[in-house]
Structure formats: structure tokens, C-alpha cells
Specification:
This protein has 18 helices and no strands. It is mostly helical. It is globular.
């Protein structure tokens, strides 16, 4: 894509050093593989920080902060729509708002369950279960006639089931050689499975709903639904009462998590402009690699061989499902319009 904004048409040719600097910035900002890998690192750091905050800031408190941060960022990135009170630009098409609400509800529970899971069990095990989502989505889509038959679907399903069993290692199946199922691990595994099902529901609803801008999706997901329901769960104290023993550093970290959640979404959609949906989906499984490394290096958790084998099976399942010919590939250009994309891509000080 021609990028006249990078060089403001100078009267003299830029120096060799400046030209290489510009080419490097353009390569990075228009490299879908790099952006997707960067996104997995952002998500991994987000999960680490959520786990670090467990005893002082609950996931629902973080979701409340993220709602306000998202509102500020959306107003900056889409200020004309907010200034003109353009409902279609802020809330999406009127005829698609019921689906947007349902999708946002499932996405909210997916996000909440994911964070609740990683605060109770190793990040690697939790993310492995959560990343079995593609196989579940493809199976239901195949049953409902939303995707055509492909041999990769049953292969993906079998690998996903095998992967989840190896990660969970329930004692009744492994006869004493299973994982130590503490109450935290039991609850965490339940949240991870529920999060996986909710994420599958989100994927299915997006297959039947019309494409909307990413700003609209984030408005519904992070603000309209997440804010009131997070406050509701905090009010009733489920699954734990909110803590107010946080420090100024905890507040700063919480804001970082909120920013990570916002920009990781943006990175995915921008990556889809320059790489195929298959490549973007497969690269997403790198989060499992970072998660197991984080368990060992940051949290000092022991990583078992069955867990690693299970994660590998889930990665293979994701690859198999991603290459299914019936899988729907969304066009990022329809979701993230060019003008919005440019405003996100370029904040150059050259």
C-alpha cells in the first residue's frame, strides 16, 4: 500500500539512513506475521499481570477499568462519530444490534472465565483448554450446515479432546498418575471449559452476523455489556468479593492490562490486512508457548510432559481446523475501514 503520509513530500530526497528507517517502520507496520506474533506477546503479558494481581484486584474489577479505558480510546480513535453522536458508527447497524448484544454477552463471559481460570491454575494449562475452541466451533458449524464437510474437522476434534484430557489429567482416567486436583484447579478447569464454550458461541454468532467495525465490536463487548455485568458480579461478590487493598502500582498495572486488551484486538484486525486468516489463526497458538515458558520462568510452576503433549495436540487441532476448506475467512478491510486503519497505523514523528 502506498504510504504518502510517511514522507511529507520533502523538497530534497531523504538521507540513506532516513530511507532505511522509513522502510523498516513500514515493514513492521505492514507485516501481518510480525503483528500477530506481537499480539500473542501482548496477550501473554496481559494474562501474567492478571494472575499477578489476583490477591488484590479481581478480574471483574479489571473489566470495569477496561470499560472506561476503552471508552476513552474509542472516543480518540473515532472522535467524529462520538462528536456527531452517530449511532450507526458507535453502536453499529440497527438491524444487527441484537446479534451484537448476544455476541458481546458471550464474549464477556469468555473473557471473565479465561481470567478466572488463569488465576486458579497454571497459565499454560488454562490457555491450552481455552484454545481448543476452534475444533468445537467447527463441529457445531458443521452440524448446523454453516461449513462444508472436511476430513480436517474430525481430526481437529479428536486432537482437541485428546489435548484437553492430557492437560486436565483427571485422576479417574489416569489412575493415580493424574494431575493433583486441588479445589483451585477444579474451579479453574471449570472456568476454562466454560470460557471455551462461550468463545465457540462468539465464533458461531460472528459467522451469521454482518461484519461490523472493530470499534463497534469493542463498544458492545468492553463497555455496553462488560461494564454493567462486571458491576453486577462485583456487587453480589461472585465468585469472590472485590478487594480494595490495592496500591497505586496495582492501579497502574490494571490500566496496562486494559490497554493490552484494547490494542491486542487492533493488532489482530490489522494483521488480517496483510496475512491470511489461516496464518493469523495458527500463529495465535504461540500464546501456548509463551504461557508454559511463563509458568516456569515467572511463577516457578512445574510443567509436566503430558501437559506439553496436550498443548501440542491442541496446536495441531487448531492448524487442522484452520486449513478446513469450509472455514469462513473474514475480510479485515470490511471490519476496520481504511481511514480508521491509517489512524491506528501511523503516529509518526518524522
Amino acid at each position: 500500500m502506498e504510504n504518502d503520509r510517511l514522507i511529507d513530500r520533502p523538497s530534497v530526497a531523504p538521507s540513506e539512513e532516513l530511507r532505511w528507517k522509513l522502510l523498516g517502520k513500514r515493514y513492521i507496520s505492514e507485516n501481518g506475521v510480525f503483528l500477530r506474533v506481537l499480539c500473542t506477546l501482548v496477550v501473554f503479558l496481559e494474562l501474567v499481570l492478571v494472575k499477578k494481581l489476583r490477591d488484590r484486584v479481581t478480574p471483574f474489577q479489571i473489566l470495569v477499568v477496561r470499560a472506561f479505558v476503552t471508552a476513552i480510546l474509542l472516543s480518540l480513535h473515532n472522535n467524529k462519530a462520538f462528536r456527531d453522536a452517530n449511532a450507526s458508527s458507535i453502536l453499529g447497524k440497527k438491524e444487527s444490534r441484537k446479534l451484537l448484544f448476544a455476541t458481546a454477552m458471550l464474549s464477556f463471559f469468555d473473557n471473565a472465565c479465561s481470567w478466572l481460570a488463569i488465576t486458579r491454575m497454571p497459565i499454560g494449562d488454562a490457555t491450552s483448554v481455552l484454545y481448543a475452541t476452534p475444533a468445537v466451533t467447527s463441529t457445531v458449524a458443521l452440524i448446523l450446515g454453516m461449513e462444508s464437510w472436511s476430513w480436517t474437522t474430525p481430526v481437529g476434534v479428536v486432537l482437541s479432546i485428546l489435548g484437553v484430557v492430557l492437560v486436565a489429567r483427571p485422576p479417574m482416567l489416569f489412575h493415580g498418575a493424574g494431575a493433583i486436583w486441588t479445589s483451585d484447579r477444579l474451579v479453574g478447569m471449570g472456568f476454562a471449559l466454560l470460557g471455551m464454550l462461550c468463545a465457540s458461541g462468539v465464533n458461531l454468532l460472528r459467522k451469521v452476523s454482518g461484519l461490523e467495525k472493530v470499534t463497534v465490536i469493542l463498544m458492545w463487548q468492553n463497555i455496553i455489556v462488560a461494564l454493567p455485568f462486571s458491576l453486577l458480579f462485583l456487587g453480589v461478590g461472585f465468585p469472590e468479593r472485590p478487594s480494595f487493598a490495592f496500591t497505586g502500582l496495582d492501579v497502574f498495572i490494571t490500566v496496562l492490562v486494559a490497554l493490552g486488551g484494547f490494542y491486542s484486538w487492533m493488532l489482530v484486525f490489522v494483521a488480517l490486512r496483510f496475512s491470511s486468516a489461516t496464518v493469523v489463526a495458527v500463529l495465535g497458538t504461540l500464546i501456548l508457548v509463551w504461557s508454559y515458558i511463563g509458568d516456569v520462568v515467572i511463577f516457578g510452576d512445574a510443567v509436566s510432559v503430558p501437559s506439553l503433549l496436550g498443548a501440542f495436540c491442541i496446536v495441531l487441532a487448531s492448524v487442522a481446523v484452520s486449513f478446513a476448506p469450509g472455514a469462513k475467512k473474514s475480510e479485515a478491510s470490511d471490519i476496520l475501514p481504511e481511514v480508521e486503519f491509517q489512524s491506528l497505523q501511523h503516529h509518526d514523528d518524522l
